[in-house]
Design goal:
Serine Threonine Protein Phosphatase 5, Tetratricopeptide repeat, mainly alpha, 6 helices, 232 residues
């Protein structure tokens, strides 16, 4: 359990930082050429995909849905590599890649959030992020008339929001883990106190028994001595 929580926390933290920085970057440099935007986006989602792949392999023993993480990581990594090695993609092709990334990642997040319900609280945040991601993807597909000047701030805002939610979820995972561990330690401490009390009561009860046994033994010896004296 502790290994799962730590892996999940660090995975969410790294991914949150990636998207937070990416969102801030294209906000502050909103006049980027399409080729630079495609390259930076590709680097961001490749990093995200690799973190997902590594996390999924760490989840194998603790999480039933680790394959969802693995498939999402591989898919996102492939999309990222496509954008990195083909920066001459047309604007419409880039929009489709971003849309597919958002939809697939969103569906994966929704599925994983259901599995996490058995382990942590705060999984509704991940579910909300997944729904938001799917909606963003369909908006890009439906809005074929969007121009680059409109897509850049929209993508930046979504990436920034995604990073904030992932970091908040990582914080919630750590808080939940600390609360569970605190309750466990308190329970363990109370169990130890009760065990000590029982042992103390047993120790207090033992001496009188020994004393009674010793007194009975001395009385028996005294009686035997008296009988021997009368006979003689």
């Amino acid at each position: 359990m502790q290994h799962l929580v730590q892996t999940l926390k660090w995975g969410l933290t790294i991914r949150g930082i990636i998207y937070l920085l990416f969102g801030l970057f294209i906000w502050f440099f909103n006049n980027l050429a399409l080729e630079i935007l495609i390259l930076v986006f590709g680097l961001a989602i490749v990093a995200d995909g690799l973190v997902n792949v590594i996390s999924s392999l760490e989840f194998r023993k603790d999480l039933d849905d680790w394959r969802i993480y693995l498939v999402e990581g591989i898919f996102v990594t492939i999309l990222g590599l496509v954008t990195i090695f083909w920066p001459q993609l047309s604007f419409s092709a880039f929009l489709l890649i971003v849309a597919f990334w958002a939809i697939v990642s969103g569906i994966a997040k929704m599925v994983v959030s259901v599995g996490l319900r058995r382990l942590i609280e705060g999984e509704l945040i991940l579910l909300f992020v997944g729904i938001l991601s799917v909606i963003f993807g369909f908006i890009l597909i439906a809005s074929k008339q969007l121009v680059l000047a409109a897509v850049v701030p929209l993508l930046g805002f979504f990436s920034f929001l995604l990073g904030v939610f992932l970091l908040f979820l990582a914080w919630r995972v750590q808080i939940e883990h600390d609360l569970v561990m605190g309750d466990f330690l308190n329970w363990e401490k109370s169990e130890g106190v009760e065990t000590t009390a029982i042992q103390d009561e047993s120790a207090l009860d033992t001496p009188p028994t020994k004393k009674v046994s010793k007194a009975n033994s001395l009385q028996a010896k005294s009686t035997t001595t008296k009988r021997s004296t009368k006979k003689s």
